[in-house]
Write a structure and sequence with these properties.
The complex is a heterodimer of chains A (314) and B (313).
Chain A (H helix, E strand, L loop, with lengths): L1 H11 L4 H31 L23 H8 L3 H17 L2 H11 L4 H12 L6 H12 L4 H9 L15 H26 L3 H9 L4 H26 L6 H7 L5 H4 L2 H11 L3 H30 L5
Chain B lengths: L1 H13 L6 H36 L3 H4 L13 H8 L3 H31 L6 H9 L8 H10 L7 H4 L6 H13 L2 H9 L4 H12 L1 H17 L2 H6 L8 H10 L1 H14 L8 H37 L1
Helix pairs in contact in B: 1-2, 2-16, 4-16, 5-9, 5-12, 10-11, 12-16, 14-16
Classes of the chains: A mainly alpha (314), B mainly alpha (313).
Chain lengths: 314, 313
Amino acid sequence: METTTASQAGKKRRFKSSHRRKDGYKLLLAALPFVLIAFAFSYVPLFGWIYAFFDYHPGIPLSKTPFSGLDRFREMFSDPRMGPVLMNTLALSFLSILTAPIPMLFAIMVSEVRSGWFKRLVQTVSTLPHYISWIIVYALAFSMFSTEGAVNAFLMKLGLGGAPVDVLGNYERVWTVQTLLLLWKSVGWSAIIYLAAIVSIDSEQYDAAKVDGAGRRRTIWHITLPSIMPTFIVLLLLSISNLLSAGFEQYLVFSNVMVADRIEVLDLYVYRLGLVTGDYSYSTAVGMFKSIISIVLLFTVNLLSKKFRGQGIV
Amino acid sequence: MNSTTASKPAAVASKPERRKRPIDYKDWTFNFFNYLILALLVLATIYPFYYIFIYSISDSIQAQKGVTFWPAGFSLEAYQTTVKLPGIMDAAIVSLSRTVVGTLITVFCCSFFAYLITKEELPFRKAIYRFVLVTMYFNAGFIPWYLTMKTYGLQNSFLLYVLPTALAGFNVILIKTFIEQLPASLEESAKIDGAGYFKIYTSIIFPLSMPIIATIAVFAAVGQWNTWFDNYFLVESPKLQTLQLVLYNFLNQSSNLSNATTEQLNRGDLVRTLTPQSIRMAITMLVTLPIVLVYPMLQRYFVKGIMMGAVKG
């Protein structure tokens, strides 16, 4: 709509067109540095994908490096570490998808609070963890759950603890622990979007339901939930497209000798291959494989969304 | 806190009780559990921060026996020692500078670029806009990123912290949408007065876009304060360490530290009454405090930001 009014205005002012062209050059010149920034920091790294097709070793220039075609990609299938890493990535992603309804539930609960100050308190406090880094989360978790942390000290005080429990070094439970930590950090933040959706529900619907004698639980079930379901679906689809991008920082920070095997996700593996082992080419190949699958997933999910909702998600 | 929130539903429910009895009982239980669960969640979120705080101001030796609700004794020694630790002050300055400089760069680049994109006269407007927006959806991966930054000579450089984040597609969308809602007449009249584009941007567009710019500035600042992986992977120079990474290294080297402390203990040095645990708490406090203090004041900007994002997306 805006473009049509603008072009009408443009027709009226045709006599100014040479002036406009001069302005255009000026604007283009002004926009150039920003295009360059985007190019330099987002597009140029893509050229690095070329390393995946060579047997590159740091120190030897790429021109003297043998071309290896798709060998480095084939290597993935014979790499014994690839299976467990994919397993970790998918398991952690699925667990976080499994907890996806919790922020929605939380938002409904918050929206049902009538006292204004309590509502504000809950919202402010629950969003706070979103704004701290994973390093701080690690520091907090460490102070709570390490063998000399708050939880063990408290159990000891009560005389309940035998040997102190090492929550962060528990091999069997590490997926659960990490999923709960992620939930702790993100629940308040993820709820905001649902709260926004709930606020925008027409209040007449609630009034009508009340007149019909519906209680709280029934209004939630028949009005609130269906109204925020589309938001839930969109977020769910997005998280499916992020299946292979289980949080890098979280697992890097929480990795320790006891649990490293079980939380080495794809991104972490790419980093370890590259900087620890020094195999740039293979690391790039694995990274590329991940990026491409993610993009394909995003498009697929977008297509599905268009087909069933009549609306894309990106 | 717990008791006040638990008594609240009772007070709320007692009023309508006289009018409609059958629904109210259900309503009361609903409220009770709703408030109770939310109060417990609030507690679970706040407590770790509170624990770190009371531990850090406790007397170090007494705290070893465990603190739960109140500080055990009182001592600021942990902070006094922490501030004197080598590298801490430098790191604080680096973190602060990257937050200020990085935020300024992001705010300027995103807002000025968004303004340019709103100009119909800009040739290839759509193409340029897309070119920048698309960057939101792809990522070259770790090693390509690492090698590119190295090629640019950003290794061990402060610019690594503030340049790559200059332009964010999402911010550009938000600001562009905001600018498009501003009345065009203001700009027209400035143009008639002979103001150029940059002049119009600085004197009209930027001040009028303050609400959205403040939101973006807050997001950018928090992001800068929290980012550490660029530091972790590409900056070794101790002069450029960020506070986050210092904290991380410190947490991981806790065993080394306790050795050092025991050594000092044996030599009868000043640290006689301080455990590494206390120092760890004090550092965590120092890194967390800026966020925790600034956060409640800025909360409305955050919420506004995500709401706008939600409307867009």
